[in-house]
Amino acid sequence: MPEEINFHFSSPNDSPGYLLGQLAMLWQRKQKKALDPLDLTQTQLALLAALGWLSKKSDSVTQIDIARQSNADRMMVSKVLRTLQDKKFITRHEHPTDTRAKIIRLTNEGEKVLQKALAAAVNADNEFFAELGTAQTTFNANMAKLIDKNKNE
């Protein structure tokens, strides 16, 4: 008979990591249902949204800018951007001063799909987080605090 496994928490619902993992999986499922009709994943939307947001302030958005904005791994960003380029949602051009970098831009089709995807994602979020009611502001602030504390690790 195996030894008894000792858990730190008396119940899975006492573990913030477990709860966060469960919540993330359920939220991703909800987002997938909303984004599937647009042929986008949640990760693709996140990077398109980062590009759209950064493009409001700069005409020279790079892959590294997108990775920083989205707190994403640079290699993963590169792979996803290639997929978005294949879908004709973005273009990549030579950077005028940095030969290692590419300027990333939304295409007209990319702008259209991003706008539709943002609306779909917001609707899905509104449904998913509705249970929080007025506590959503505190929930968002706590998530932002954790992101800020841990993003450089």
Automatic annotation (TrEMBL):
<feature type="domain" description="HTH marR-type">
    <location>
        <begin position="13"/>
        <end position="152"/>
    </location>
</feature>
<keyword id="KW-0804">Transcription</keyword>
<dbReference type="InterPro" id="IPR036388">
    <property type="entry name" value="WH-like_DNA-bd_sf"/>
</dbReference>
<dbReference type="Pfam" id="PF01047">
    <property type="entry name" value="MarR"/>
</dbReference>
<keyword id="KW-0238">DNA-binding</keyword>
<dbReference type="InterPro" id="IPR000835">
    <property type="entry name" value="HTH_MarR-typ"/>
</dbReference>
<keyword id="KW-0805">Transcription regulation</keyword>
<dbReference type="InterPro" id="IPR039422">
    <property type="entry name" value="MarR/SlyA-like"/>
</dbReference>
<protein>
    <submittedName>
        <fullName>MarR family winged helix-turn-helix transcriptional regulator</fullName>
    </submittedName>
</protein>
<dbReference type="InterPro" id="IPR036390">
    <property type="entry name" value="WH_DNA-bd_sf"/>
</dbReference>
